[in-house]
Design a protein that fits this description.
- This protein is mainly alpha-helical.
- The chain is built from 10 helices and 6 strands.
- It has one domain.
- The strands form 3 sheets. The protein has a two-stranded antiparallel ribbon with strand order 1-2. The protein has a two-stranded antiparallel ribbon with strand order 3-6. A two-stranded antiparallel ribbon has the order 4-5.
- A hairpin with a 2-residue loop joins strand 1 and strand 2.
- The relative contact order is 0.15.
C-alpha cells in the first residue's frame, strides 16, 4: 500500500493495527542484547597513499537492525512532522515520557508517536541520542506499549482473533 502524506503525517494508508504490529515486532529484537542495534565508527583503509585511513562516524550509528527500526518508524507514520518535537520534549509531558519507562508503558498512541519522533529526530542533531534512548530501554518500552495496545485490542475480539494475532507472521 502506498504512503500518502497529509499535514506532515502518513495517512492511514495502513491500518492502526498494522502500525502497532510493526512497532511491536521489535520487542524481541530490542530485548536481545546479543544483536547489535548500534555500531561504533571504524577506521578503514591501510594508511597508504592509494588506501589512506578513513574514519567512520565519530559517534555511534544504527546497525542494520537500528536502521530498519527507524525506517519502519518513518514508513508507518510513527515519526511525525506536524508538531515541534523540540519544544514538546521539554514540556512536563515530554520530559516525563523521555525519562520514565513507567510513563511510556502508560502512554497513549499520540504520546508514543511524539516520543518516538523526538528520539529519532534528536539523533540527527546529537550523535548518540537514539543510542541513549536504546540503552536506557526507552525504545523497548515504546515497542512493549505498542504490543500492549494490540493485546488489549485482540483479547477483546475473542479467542480466535487473538490467536490469529499471536500466530500471524
Amino acid at each position: 500500500m502506498g504512503e500518502i502524506f497529509e499535514e506532515g503525517r502518513v495517512s492511514n494508508a495502513i491500518s492502526d493495527s498494522e502500525r502497532l504490529k510493526r512497532l511491536a515486532s521489535y520487542v524481541p529484537v530490542l530485548s536481545d542484547e546479543a544483536k547489535p542495534f548500534f555500531e561504533s565508527g571504524q577506521m578503514v583503509g591501510r594508511g597508504t597513499w592509494d588506501e589512506p585511513f578513513e574514519f567512520g562516524s565519530a559517534g555511534p550509528f544504527p546497525a542494520e537492525i537500528g536502521n530498519a527500526f527507524v525506517e519502519i518508524a518513518y514508513a508507518t507514520g510513527w515519526v511525525r512532522n506536524d508538531f515541534d518535537w523540540m519544544d514538546w520534549s521539554v514540556t512536563e509531558e515530554g520530559a516525563d515520557l523521555r525519562e520514565s519507562r513507567v510513563s511510556v508503558l502508560r502512554a497513549n498512541q499520540d504520546q508514543l508517536e511524539k516520543l518516538l519522533t523526538s528520539f529519532i529526530k534528536a539523533d540527527r542533531l546529537i550523535d548518540g541520542a537514539l543510542q541513549d534512548a536504546y540503552s536506557r530501554g526507552m525504545l523497548l518500552a515504546i515497542a512493549e506499549r505498542a504490543r500492549a495496545f494490540l493485546d488489549e485490542k485482540y483479547s477483546r475480539m475473542g479467542p480466535v482473533a487473538f490467536s490469529n494475532y499471536i500466530f500471524a507472521d
